[in-house]
Structures are given as C-alpha cells and as structure tokens.
Amino acid sequence: MNSFDQEDGSPVMYRTPDYVPRRSWRTWLIGRPLPTADAPHQTIGKLAGLAIFASDALSSTAYATQEMLVVLAAAGTAAFGYAFPISLAIVGLLIILTLSYEQTIHAYPGGGGAYIVARDNLGELSAQTAGSALLTDYILTVAVSVSSGVAQLVSAFPVLYDFRVEIAISLVLFVMIVNLRGVREAGAAFAIPSYFFVAMMYLMVGVGLVRYVAGTLLPVADPPPMETLGGVQALSLFLILRAFSSGTTALTGVEAISNGIQAFREPRSRNAGITLMWMSVILGTLLVGITFLAGEIGAVPSESETVISQLARTIYGGRNVLYLATIASTTVILIMAANTSYAGFPRLSALLAIDGFLPRQFAFRGSRLVYSYGIVALALIACMLIAIFQASVTGLIPLYAIGVFLSFTLSQTGMARRWWKIGHLAPGQEVKERGSTLRYEPGWQTKMTINGVGAVVTAVVALIFATTKFVQGAWVVLLLMPLLVLMFSAIHRHYRSLASHLSLEAYGAPPPVPRHRVILPISGVHRGSLAALRYAMLLSDDVTAVHVSLDPEEAARVRKKWDMWGEGVRLVILDSPYRLWLEPLLAYIEEVAANRQPNETLTIVVPNFVPKHWWHNLLHTQAAIVLRLALLFKSGIVVTDVPYHVE
Amino acid sequence: MNSFDQEDGSPVMYRTPDYVPRRSWRTWLIGRPLPTADAPHQTIGKLAGLAIFASDALSSTAYATQEMLVVLAAAGTAAFGYAFPISLAIVGLLIILTLSYEQTIHAYPGGGGAYIVARDNLGELSAQTAGSALLTDYILTVAVSVSSGVAQLVSAFPVLYDFRVEIAISLVLFVMIVNLRGVREAGAAFAIPSYFFVAMMYLMVGVGLVRYVAGTLLPVADPPPMETLGGVQALSLFLILRAFSSGTTALTGVEAISNGIQAFREPRSRNAGITLMWMSVILGTLLVGITFLAGEIGAVPSESETVISQLARTIYGGRNVLYLATIASTTVILIMAANTSYAGFPRLSALLAIDGFLPRQFAFRGSRLVYSYGIVALALIACMLIAIFQASVTGLIPLYAIGVFLSFTLSQTGMARRWWKIGHLAPGQEVKERGSTLRYEPGWQTKMTINGVGAVVTAVVALIFATTKFVQGAWVVLLLMPLLVLMFSAIHRHYRSLASHLSLEAYGAPPPVPRHRVILPISGVHRGSLAALRYAMLLSDDVTAVHVSLDPEEAARVRKKWDMWGEGVRLVILDSPYRLWLEPLLAYIEEVAANRQPNETLTIVVPNFVPKHWWHNLLHTQAAIVLRLALLFKSGIVVTDVPYHVE
C-alpha cells in the first residue's frame, strides 16, 4: 500500500494493494495465479513448431482413410479400390493449400488466420463468416479427435467399448484443465509424442511396404464387422465425391501454423513457412501410404476396430509390442490434436470479443494468463457433441471439414484480393491495415493466381462437401453458421449502442439535484429498522417510512412503537387486503416516483437483516432481495441496503 | 388511496392502495386471490363431519387386511387363519382409543391435537416429539393412501402397472392444487364419495356373508402371484406381533376428529364425540368383516391385485359393474384420505411456525387464505417418498403408524396428567392453560384411568411396531423424529436470539453520526459512472472513487478522463497484478473500514448498468451483484446501487 503520484495537483492516486490471492480448490486444480508480468515471451524453433502445430493435421491420418472406406462400403468392398486414387487427389489439394498458405504466412507475420485475412480484405461479414466457421471447426476438432483417440483405445481394449463416451468426456475435461493451467513449457511435452507418432507411422508404413514388395503381406486376419452408412447403393460419381469429402478431413489443421506465426523464432515467416512444408510432406506421404496398404490388406471400416489397428496388427503379425506402441502413439497424438483447438478457439474468441462480436469475458485472461472463458466454453460444447453423437467419429465427420474449407476459401479469396490491392499500389507507397502492411511487390500476378486457384479449389471442395454430406449432418453446420453470424452482429449492436449511450461526447455539466426523497420500508420497529432509519435521516430530511399491514393488530403495534421511537419521521401504513407484501409497496413507490419533480432523486433504503449462518436465511422472507429485484427495472430509483448484522 | 388518520399529531398515516392483484398463471391454476375479510366461518354437522374427517381412518380398511396377510405369508398360507383373531385384537385397541379420544374432545373444544395436549401437559420436548411424529405421519398418510389408491386402479386395469409412480405423483399434485385453491364448499364434495364408499363396503361384506351362510362363497378364482416379505420362516409370536403391527395401520386417522373440533356446529364437543363413535363403529365392523371374508375365500396378498379387488370379484362373481363400483369407491376414498393430511399438515406446521419451531413462512396465508407453504411442502416430500418406494404400500407400511402411535401415547399421557391436575384443584378454582381451561370435575379418577390405559396400550403397540418393523424401515422414522426435534429447537433458538437482538428494551437514543464516507468503484469514466458520482456527492462531501486497473493503458485513459470529468473528487487507481477485480477492491474497502472512526458510516455506491434485454446481462460481468454478495457479510457497510438504464 504505497507509491503515490500526486505531485501535479491531480486528485488521482495510484496504489498497489498488498494482495496475495488466496489458496482454494482452484489453486489445487489449475495452479497458483500468475501475475501479468509473467506473461511468456519465449519463441520456438521449427522442430518444436512442427510438434505443436502439426499434431492436428497429422493426427487426421488416423481416421481419414477409414472415413473414405466407410462411404465406399455402401457400394461393396470392390469399391474400396477407389480409395487410393481419391487419396492422390487429396494430396493434390494439399499441395495447392500449402502453396497458398505459404504466401499467407509471409504476408501476415503477426498471425494470418482466416478471420484476420478476411476482415482486412473482404469486410466484416466475411470475417464473421470465417470466425463462425473456424469456431465451429475448433469445437468439432476436439470432438472428432478425442472420439477417434478413444476408438483407437477401444480397438486395443474392446472391453472399454461401453465406456467410450465417459472416457472421451473425461479426456476433454482433462485437456481443459491442462490448458487452464497454461502450457508454459509446451515444447518438450509436445515434441516427444508428436515425433513418436511420426516415427511409429513411418515404421508401420515402411514395414508394410517392405512386406508388400516381399509378397509376405497377408490380408487382415479375423476382420471386425463392417460398418456402412445407410443401405447398399451402386457405385456412382456422387458416392466417390462423398468419399473424397470424407477424406479431405485429413486437411483440417493445415491452417494452424498460419494462426500461430508469432510463436516462431525470427525469421518468423521463414521458419513458419518451412515448418508448413515439412508438415505437408509428412501428411501427404502418410495418407497415401496408409490408404494404399489398407487397400492391400483388405481393411474394413468398423466402429469396433479402427483401420490403423487392423493395419498395425496385420503388418506386425499380431497384437504385440509394436502394435501397442503404434496404437498408443495414435491415441496420444489424437488427444494432442484436440489440444491444438484449445490454443486456437480461445485466441480467436478473444479476438472476436475485443472486436465486440462475442461477450467481453472471452477477452479476459484468467488467473493463469490464459483465456479461461474460451477454454471452458470449448470443452463444454465439445462434451455436449460427444454425448449427442455417442463418441462416433463417423457420426461427427459430416459436420466436420465444411467449416474448415469455408475458412480456407475466405482466407484465400482475401489473400487474392490483397495481391490485387498490392499490384495497384505505386512503388514505395505503404498502406497500413489492421493485420499487415501493404507494399508494392513485383510478381503479384503469380501470387494472386496461386491464392486464386486455392480459393476456387477449396470453394469447390466445400460445395462438394455440403452437397454430398447435406443429409447426414452438414445441414446442421450450414444452419449454425448464419445463426452464429447473426449472434455476432446482435452482440456487436448491443456494445455499440451501449458505448454511444455512455459516451461523454456532447455531455453537458450535470444539472443540480434539487431534492432527495428517501422511502424506508419497514416490517416492524426494532433495532434493525431503527438503524436503517438513522441512516435514512443522514441522507435526507425528507424521509418516509412505509409499513405494509397484513394484520391490523400488528399495524397497531407498529404504530404505537413508531410514535415512541420514530423520531417524528412520517410513517405510512399500507393496508393489504390480499396479504401481499411486495405489490402494495411497489404501487406506493411507483406513485411517489411518478409525482416527483424533474431531477428529484428517489432512494429506497432497505433494512437488510444478515444472519450469522447462511441456513438462517431459510427462516426469513428474503424481502430485501425480492424488493431489489422488483425495483431493478424501474428507471431512476436508487436502492440502498442497510445491513443489520446479528452477531 | 385515501382515509387519513392524522388528527392527533402523530406522523402515522393509513392508506389503502387501489391495488388489484394481477392475473397470472397462478390465477388460472388456483383461482383469483381472496381478501382476508373472506375467511370462511361456516361450521358443519355430524354427517358432513363424518365424511370429511373419517375418510383417512375408513380408507385404511382398504389395505390393513392385506398388510396383515403379507406378513403372515412368510409362514405359509396356513398362517392366514391368524388374521381374523388379530383383527379382533385391533378392534379392542380401537375401543380403548375411541373412549380416550372422546374425553380429549370434551376437554379441548378448541381443538385437541397431540401437539396441543402434550404442550399444555407434558412440556415443550414432548410437544415437539408429538409434532415431529404427526408431521412424519401426515406425509406418510399421503404417500400410503395414494399408493394404495393407485394399487386399486392397477388391480382393475393391470396395463397401468408400469405407470403407477407417475399416476401416484400426478394425484398428489392434483390434490395439492385443489388444496391450494382452498376447499370452501367441502361438505357435499366429500359427503358423496365417503358415503358411497361406506355403502359399497357394507354391500360387499353383506353379500359376502349371505353367500357364506348360503354356502355359495367360492375360493378366489385365478389368484394373483403371492407376495411375501423376505424368506420363508416358521410361525412365531414375533411374526404374529408383526402382522398385528401392520394391521394397526387401520387405526391411523382416528385422531383426525380431535384436531378439527372447531369445524363442528355447536354443541361442538358433543357433535364431534358422536361423530367419533360412528366412525369407530364403521371402521371396526368393516375391518373384521373384510378380514373374515378374505380368509374364507383364500385371498392372497399381491402387488398386482389388492385383497379388496379379489374379494369384490369373488363375491360379485366377476369383474362386473358392482366390482368396478367397489374399486372406484375405494380408489376415491383413498385419494380423499390423502386430502385429510392436506388439512392437518399445514395447520400443524402453521401452529409450530407461530410457536417459532418452523420457518415463519409456514404461518403465512397464501392468496387463497390457505397455508400454501405447508401444502406445497407436504406434496413435495410425499412425492419424494412415492418415487423412492416406487408407490409400494408394503414398502411404505413399516415407516407408517409408528408416528401415529407415538402421538397417541403422548396425547393420552398428557390427558391423564391433565385429569390428575384437575383432581387436585379446589372446587370452583379455574386455571387457564393455552389450549383449554381446567376446572375441578368429580369422577376424574375414572377418566384418568381411561386415558392412562389408552396411553399404556398405545405405548405397547408403538414399541411392538418399532421392534417388529425396525429392520424393514421403522429405523428411518426413529432416526428422523429426533432429527426433526433438533431442527425445531435450532430454529427456535435462532428466532429467540434474533428477537433479543432486535428488542428495543434497554435501547438508548441513537448516537450522532459524525462522518459519512462514500466509496465509488468505477470501471471507467462514462455517463453511467458520472451519474453515480453525482449521486455519491449528494450523500457526502467525502467521496473517493476507486478504479481497479487490469491494464495500465486503460488506467491512463481513466485518469485522463477523470481529470476532466471527475469534479475534483479523489480517484484511487488500484493496481491488480493478478488481473483480479474483486479482491483488490475488497482489500481496499476493508482497509478503509478498519481505519474508520467510531460511528462513522461507510457507504459503497455501485454504478449498476441495467440493460434493455435480460440476455444482455450475459454480455457484462455482473460486477455490481458480485460486489454486493461479497460485501453482504462485512459488518456495517452500506451498499447502494445506482442504476443506469440504457433505453
């Protein structure tokens, strides 16, 4: 309690209270509060960056192949042959996306998520659409990744099948708590499982290819019951496109690096760009490899055993140590993929809150310097989805990826427009936008073309996705996103209107207050009400006590005591034939309020009895609280609680 | 708004507001509010009195026989022969009880429930024990009677078996609503079903006896699966006593008339006493008749068909119109028996509340002039019991009757003591007690003996009940009653200590208030906080505004604006390194409070932003509410809400 600053005659004074946060159950759960000055400023290199940001994208290789197969299964196992060419098409798409995002990373060294790029180049509506698409997708990433992680576990330990929803929800909450603590030394914790996963996958694909070449790769033994969607149908272009849509879920998470550029060591954009390249190469090769081998061994899509599990036990010849290591690494990377959303969702919702599109609480940093509101909101909605879809990856997939591809499209369109703007600047001219600075660059036409192609291709994929998955669930997301955008703008309107109401522009000096009336409702004459009377008389000379009479005998007693103790203050006894207490009192207060002069202030002084133990409150009518709630919505009436503590 | 009364210079003024209660969903559900002046004063004759007060006692003939049989079933069907002699023993007990209560009715013409008799003659602890026993039993009466009513319905329509809990709960709530409306013209509504039931029972027993004498009474055809309690066991005295205990549930409700003497027409005690006699005769003959016939047709206890249903279809030769009329009348009387509790429980809990043993709210008359709190509490607890015991009469019976017999014992002991007191008065001497007036009466020894025998016999029955049913559930009640008594005395202690704290005895003139300090927490400088500042300056010259700074930039902005708009009032900026808002503010307020002079008043003026739509509250931290809750428990700090309405 010190540090004054009053040399300049200003009435303002600075103090730092000697306040140390108390220990509580929250301290135990998420750790001691961190002072603002402790905010981390460390940056990471390419290897750590790959581990942290790539887990989302890489982990999708764990389910993408299976989700293609489950669609193709409708046309019989013969259709499984199409999975491999489809995976090649997806790799083509991945190459286009990688080139596009490489450019975004260099253009937005401060972080180039779809929301920022769309906001700067396409306007508010596009930005909000991108925001809603991304928020939806972060939630689905958590639900899908954790559900898929649990599916791997269940493949290895079928006895856990009945508890999959409970396990998934526990994992979501566990990751929530970890994130509420804040991940300060994330590097090592992330690097080990990520690289372990990559190593295990390459080992599996490598051994599988060697056995394929050697001719010793056998079909999967004792395959699980095959899962299909709906009835049997003929192979059609529509079915192939639907399988392609399911496969594109492998590309979710490709944008993660562009959101987190600021975390990289300088030269930031270069490091981030190279990390993106590495990630795409790993993702592409694993997807193609897994899909090829799955076809060769005749793996079937199933709710009870994942394709990865079938591959691993076929390639390694049984459920041995290598099999278990593969499943374990897959489970862990899937949980970590959920963790990527826990970084992205709170950061984006804080950005939206600062811009006034989400409640401001999302921009508050909690006791551990993280955006606690966003973290908790993400976890709760993801748990809800898991419960609704019973932790089924196949059930969740139709909702997934559509948001990602919409945000890809908006981001790439924004980038294309940005190149066009750059191309029309004079050399040397500089235009500062909110997220980046524009300077003329030669060769802008090529770059615009790359982003333009990215935009068109991702738009086509989004369209294919929406069409082929509409009935299975995409409609939910297509309905949800406009609703989110509407919510954003309603919130924004509220904050804007509030700001204009509170603004001091054109605010004159306050008019003088000519008169202050005080009304004091009392239930009886006792020490509590007399303490309140004393306080009321301190406020104004114009005090009226009011007693609502439910019982004439009681009223007579009050009157007699008031004559003795009321210090000559006026007492109005309101008769209440219906034994109501609040309504006659409100009617009286409203009448007084209606008859007051301009600028007259009306204060209601409420004696508030505060008992020693909380349960004593059950023994009293909570008159003070009821009256306060009723008066809250009356304009211009001040309510004062005068507590009377019984020791 | 009129009627002054200010001729005598008193500052007290009477007003009757032109207030008419608004129509709402409650009006629709329970009717328009009734003014206090409408309280009913009508009295009833013996025929109506029998209908209203006897339904509880008479209805127990619908299950008492069956509950004896279910106990005896453990020793095989041969043991069923003991049911008839047991029923004769119960009738003997009934005669003793009737004589005892006849005396109580004449001694307490103002109402002689066990609580009042025990309070006046045995002291507070016995009164509270009687009160807790009666409250417990009223609740069980509702649960048992409604469950038994539903069991009759299910016997006639077995398809309803799976919905018995839902039906029972709906009936309890229905009776609750009827009672919340208030039963003003209860006479006719009660008389018809009560006499219909008595007529149907006598018809059934009569036809049964005629067929028995004529030798045409056959055994029950196609009997339902027999229900037993626990395993097979040998016939023992213990088992017979347990069957006797179950049968004594027929006597619950005998005390109802003694509680409601005031409702009878003058000569009150005489009318009530004769009604009691009639009731006992009907109850005794029906119990013996039903038990005898049940033995003759070989009726078996069962969850799926009641003994009454087996009797009716055997006597009437099938499920015909007479059968259905019997079942219908039984169902209706059982629901009406629950209704008796709805009269007794609220009246007793109001009595306890007035004496300060239950929360005062139980003594408030609701909009329909009934004790709404008691009615709702009874319904909710009974529904809970029904849900826990799955509407099984056999499951509930072990909890039942023990409370009744305990209250019988206390009431009769109290009466015996009263006669002893009367015997020791001088002739002509008069002692006024709270519930009655004592005058010397010749022959007090005989009357004391009658009540004394009643006390001893009911005490023995209570003991038998507690012993034989302890394991099955009586322990719950034996545990619950002392807990209730403890709760009563805790509540009583609270009200007494509160009254002494609020008492104006030895209360001197209030000391003068030398100084009034005002603290004004602000989140920013805007129209809302300036309105609050204006109000704070109206209260005192000593105002300090406080801003908790989570962000130095924001603090600098606040400071700059305050220099311009703060009207020279002191502003303290509290640094908050942990980004907490409440804790530094509370620490500051506590420091100021700790340093204040004696009798200095401290007021916290909280600007409270009131949004136009309720959902807007989600977009704001509820700072005012949080602060108010935190300050509620600090002694001697006044909190004032200054609302700022955004239109």
Please describe the topology of this protein.
Two copies of one chain form a homodimer.
Chain A: E1 12-15, H1 25-30, H2 46-59, H3 64-72, H4 83-107, H5 114-122, H6 124-156, H7 164-181, H8 186-214, H9 237-247, H10 256-259, H11 268-297, H12 307-315, H13 321-354, H14 372-388, H15 393-396, H16 402-423, E2 430-432, E3 437-439, H17 444-502, E4 516-521, H18 527-539, E5 542-549, H19 552-565, E6 570-575, H20 582-594, E7 601-610, H21 623-632, E8 637-645
Helix pairs in contact in A: 2-8, 2-11, 2-13, 3-9, 4-9, 4-11, 4-17, 5-6, 5-16, 6-7, 6-13, 6-14, 6-16, 6-17, 7-13, 7-14, 8-11, 8-13, 9-17, 11-12, 12-13, 13-14, 16-17
What share of residues of chain A is helical? 55-70%
Structural class by sheet pairing and helices of chain A? alpha/beta
Shape designation of chain A: elongated
Neighbour order of strands in the largest sheet of chain A: 6-5-4-7-8
Total DSSP E strands of chain A: 8
Oligomerization state of this entry?
homodimer
Q: What value does the average pLDDT of chain A take?
A: 85
- Low-confidence segments of chain A, given as residue ranges, are 1-6
Our estimate of the beta-strand percent of chain A is 5-15%
Radius of gyration of chain A: 33 Å
Largest sheet of chain A: 5 strands, parallel
Element order of chain A: H for helix, E for strand: EHHHHHHHHHHHHHHHHEEHEHEHEHEHE
Q: Give the helix tally of chain A.
A: 21
